[in-house]
Amino acid sequence: MDASIRLRVDGQWRTLDVDTRTTLLDALRERLGVTSPKKGCDHGQCGSCTVLLDGRRAVTCLALAVAHDGAEIVTAEGLADGEDLHPVQRAFLEQDGLQCGYCTPGQVCSAVGMLEEVKAGWPSQVTEDLAGPPELDDEEIRERMSGNLCRCGAYPNIVAAIRQGAR
Amino acid sequence: MTVEAARRGGEALGDSALRPDGVLKVTGEFAYSSDLWADDMVWGVTLRSPHPRARITGIDVSEALAVPGVHAVLTHEDVPGEKFYGLEHHDQPVLAIDQVRYQGEPVALVAADHPETARRARDRIRVGYEVLEPLTDARRAALDPSYPKVHGDRSNVVRHQPIRVGDMAHARRVAEVVVRGEYEVGMQDQAFLGPESGLAVPAEDGGVDLFVATQWLHVDQEQIAPCLGLPTGRVRLTLAGVGGAFGAREDLSMQIHACLLALRTGRPVKIVYGREESFFGHVHRHPARLRYEHGATRDGRLVYVDAEIVLDGGAYASSTSAVVGNAASLGVGPYEVPNVRLDAYGVYTNNPPCGAMRGFGAVQACFAYESQMDKVAEACGLDPVEVRIRNAVAEGSRLATGQVIDMPAPLAAMLEDARAFPAPPPTGTADVRDLPGGVSNTTHGEGVRRGVGYAVGIKNICYSEGFDDHSTARVRLETVGGEPAALVHTAAAEVGQGLVTLQAQIARTELGVRQVTVAPADTGVGSAGSSSASRQSYMTGGAVRAACEAVRERVIELAEERLGRSLPGASLHDGRVVAADGLAVASLAEVLAGRAVEETREFRHRRTTALDPLTGQGDSHVQFAFCVHRAVVDVDVELGLVKVVELAAVQDVGRILNPLALEGQIHGGSAQGLGLALMEEIQVRDGVVRNPSFTDYLIPTILDMPPMRTRILENADPHAPYGLRGAGEPPTLSSTPAIVAAVRDATGRPLTRIPVRPEHISCG
């Protein structure tokens, strides 16, 4: 069955007819030509397809497009204004928080979403003081980023990049 | 370095230059092979064998062809040229002919207008199989001539390489301490995150243009063209974005298949493997069984090593021969051993094919010989670092192959450095989140023990054993918008290691220009060899430098003509020709006067020789690289859970060309070694893969990767460009045995098999 949906992708409204079984990731990549989110596993295991979905980080391979009619989607491409990078992207570049770069758009979106969660006071598994605002130390960064795999093992530099991007 | 500083061009050799492709990679606009698109393209899918060994009794494609939207269904009968390909032996069929030899072997191809249509059609291909019992015992394949053959009459032994040095009978008499061990290494997967993919576009000349993620464009081209029945020049390859490689893109995957479908349909064809298919779409690290016996004096000096290494190559040879060469020639490790009897075998079985993965044969041996060194230390009552220092090679040492190390090898000092790293503070047990397993830990930490382990490894850099290893670079210098600008063109694959960054750094330094562009890698320029064996800084770096030197010579000649005098010792700096006295005599813009200077150079490293087939003697390697790891772990000995608290590495890289990128290579290599030590294994039972997903094949997350300390030494190799030493692989060797040694230290368990599983710790 097909359904007509509207998505606001990186600031632009797009209308498309999708088979109701289409994932949000396939709708973005194959229907709209938005290839910034990557398909690493298609099973929610690697995090490469992470975007900001209505302001929160989400893996698009586990979302059905039809369930997000009217949603606001920001990919890593939409975080930047052309050459003018988001501070987190700039930090990934300057700290070399990437090697092959395949996981990077997902890492970047995940980091941006995660920093918002911290700002909103959401505690994580490793937060010491549940009453106060969480303090973003390396342990917090690693805990909160553990859903994004990087096979190149650029993890130490990813931690450094997020530390810089959070400033 | 900041983005602004980088844009000002402050990125010479030795700086932490930023990746020129980095901006596109952090936004996701960088086009990986799976992102490619052509308007009228169709999608290719592969039908694979469900059986590890079977005879094919018939293939019926008629139902598949009848599916609306299907453009082509191909079997081996549709392969117009050579039916077989391979890196070292042409033993692998493009599509299975009369039998299948591993689970996942490609049998047929479908092209359709939608991937789902293609998959549905694929399910309607009828293949008749007469299932046979798979041959999966690698040791029998190596040693038992009566074991049935995987390939008709051909021996199951792809290569047997002995090493024979000294007098073993005498050595056994004088050894005062003997330790023995049998070790096993599980099958590791490269698990790059960007699955195999590419786009083949039929060309008007009857040829094909292939855009693909690979490690070596020209060796792909040489294998593809004969199978298509085309001259090499009609198969043109361009490197698409590579989402990680680690050895898994050295062999062909979808390349020939996509080209066949494109030529048959006359349409561009895209093939993208999913994650599950990717586990069947590339070769893996050879699983190994290793039997070692070390003899030593009571004060811990090695007298002999007697070893047998069996590497399971699976159904097709891939690079098994070279892997065996490494395992044999580096099989006693970076130690002086006067007497050696070692036999390394690589064999055919009906297990998944194995070939290149970071560390390439040296990884498996390193786990065994380093485990043995700890046993020697224990038997002699010595500290594990001390026993290694007493036996460590140095410049001038003779290896088991007879080759003398003619470059710095400061291993003893590196071991001292590793020992001198400050110890990380003890982990408290008050907070369950600090325990191994974190909140999954159901105890109060009463079973948690701290352990420390050390390991060293020796890795050859570049291709060995007489291979004609070379790389080609074309460099063009011209004026663009009044500014001198250089264009560097090679066929070298950027796989994430930072090679495009380095090529630009070299051109900037050698030509004294800020503006450098690295052209997309393609087969329009000569071969660069593979992005493997930690060789590209050495080889393509060497080629780019040579081409830049040639350009520089010609520019200086032009300056001499213009000025009417000779300029001995002149150089190029900051856009100017600078005379030997340091004075700028002309700008490059003036000298070039609108002309372009272009030079192409091939770079070769010094010659190596084959290993003697009976004694394993020969100067088989170009360069040796070393890394030392110290691992600190907390282990819950009751639950069998391990937390790596810290990894520290000491590595000699000859010369640091890009500190930031280098650190990344050490982190990444260490992380992959951690994975092999504690979690990564393709589980194969009777030739069938049981865990082809990231749910069941675990790779380290950011939580598994501990903080790292690194100490990097720069003892230049006089034979290498800039004195550099390849850096990508050595950390992968030593981190695994260091972590396992640390777990042994904490638990007292023998831990002879990797990856170590919880039950090996808690149940022995």
Structural overview:
The complex is a heterodimer of chains A (about 170) and B (about 775). Chain A has two domains: about 1-80, Beta-grasp domain (Ubiquitin-like (UB roll)), CATH 3.10.20.30; about 85-165, DNA polymerase, domain 1, CATH 1.10.150.120. The relative contact order of chain A is 0.16. Chain A is built from six helices and five strands, in the order ββαβββααααα. In chain A, strands 2-1-5-3-4 form a five-stranded mixed β-sheet, with helices on both faces. The mean pLDDT of chain A is about 95. The termini of chain A are far apart. Helix content of chain A is about 35%, strand content about 15%. Chain B starts with a helix and ends with a helix. Chain B is globular and about 75 Å long. Chain B is about 25% helix and about 25% strand. Chain B has 19 helices and 33 strands. Chain B has three domains: about 35-135 and about 195-240 and about 250-280, Aldehyde Oxidoreductase, domain 3 (Alpha-Beta Complex); about 290-465 and about 610-760, 2-Layer Sandwich (Aldehyde Oxidoreductase, domain 4); about 470-605, Aldehyde oxidase/xanthine dehydrogenase, molybdopterin binding domain (Aldehyde Oxidoreductase, domain 4, 2-Layer Sandwich), CATH 3.30.365.10. At the A-B interface, helix 2, helix 3, helix 4, helix 5 and helix 6 of A face helix 2 and helix 17 of B.
